[in-house]
Amino acid sequence: MIRLDDVAVSRGGQPILRGVNATLEPGLVHAVIGPNGAGKTTLLRALFGDLPLSAGGIEMAGRRMGPGRLGSPFRKAWRDALAYMPQDSSADLAMTVLEVVVLGRLGRLQFHVDDETLQAAMARLDAADIAHLADREIGSLSGGQRQMAMFAQVLMRDPLALLLDEPVSALDLKHQIALLDVVRGETRATERVTVVVLHDLNLACRYADNLLVVADGTLRASGPPRSLVTPDLIGSVYGVEVEVLHDSRGSPVVQPMGRAAASAASRRQMAAQ
Ligand SMILES: Nc1ncnc2c1ncn2[C@@H]1O[C@H](COP(=O)(O)OP(=O)(O)OP(=O)(O)O)[C@@H](O)[C@H]1O
């Protein structure tokens, strides 16, 4: 479990996140949604120990990270428990896909890649549907193929928690589903905490057990998609009019209807005038 307690983060001297309280249960997929610039990546990087907290704390596996400079032994131990896939995993390296995936075990490697590691890397590539690309140079892949390879790499770390920042942004429909199926399956099987930033609200509703709605640097709402996702919440967070339908499994489906001309409150005010 990961617990966030009144977390605040500043960047460039500006407060970006404030008052974030959440409990992230293991074995569940937690999807972070919210508009551009809301603070989603900042939240993920704070969880990874990549950005210092300006207030509050994060507890994970008996450790507590508080405000202040992150001392390097603490930071290393904290990050060793996690696997983080950043938004842009640009990889212009002269390395093959297989070598990049094997790097996920860095720290355990001692200048020798044993057969077990190679087999594990191949299994990860297979699960990501890119085993046939193992010997290609990573820089020669398409954006989507590279995203799948970086995903295979983070899984090799066998982490306590998986932090994925827009992992499907470059993927076609089939590979979005394939990657998120693996994410959900691994999360359940390993009882780890998964936090994934997604812009596609319908994928978030379909795959997340818990949604974290970030807006203007605060956690506006959180909970299971079915009870959380309403036209009012999505409309007010994104500034659009939406209809919320439900698919045959009961997952919410968000249908944009147009930009919100005015809030309900201002419409009532205008009607009263
Ligand atoms: N180094 C920085 N210095 C100052 N402000 C920053 C810095 N990096 C990011 N920000 C600001 O912090 C805010 C949150 O950024 P963040 O990347 O967390 O948003 P996001 O929700 O992930 O957005 P997106 O959906 O566009 O990726 C933005 O207003 C951004 O401009």
Mean pLDDT rating: 87
Q: Assign the CATH topology of the largest domain.
A: Rossmann fold
SSE string, helices as H and strands as E: EEEHEEHEHHHEHEHEEHHEEH
> What structural class do you assign from the helix and strand content?
alpha/beta
- Radius of gyration, CA atoms, in whole angstroms: 20 Å
Q: Globular, elongated, flat, extended or rod-shaped: what is the shape?
A: globular
Instruction: Report helical residue fraction.
Output: 25-40%
Protein name: Iron complex transport system ATP-binding protein
Domain ABC transporter: 2-241
Function: Part of the ABC transporter complex HmuTUV involved in hemin import. Responsible for energy coupling to the transport system.
Keywords: ATP-binding, Nucleotide-binding, Translocase, Transport
Q: If you had to describe this structure to a student in words, what would you say it looks like?
A:
Keywords: ATP-binding, Nucleotide-binding, Translocase, Transport. It holds the Pfam family ABC_tran. It comes from Aureimonas pseudogalii. The protein is α/β, with parallel strands linked by helices and 273 residues long. It folds into two domains: 2-81 and 159-222, 3-Layer(aba) Sandwich (Rossmann fold), CATH 3.40.50.300; 92-157, no CATH class. 35% of the residues lie in helices and 28% in strands. The strands form three sheets. The chain has a six-stranded mixed beta sheet with strand order 6-7-8-3-9-10, sandwiched between helices. A four-stranded antiparallel beta sheet has the order 2-1-4-5, with helices on one face. Strand 4 (55-60) and strand 5 form a beta hairpin. Helix 4 (115-127) packs across helix 5 (143-155). The radius of gyration is 20 Å and the shape is globular. The protein starts with a strand and ends with a helix.
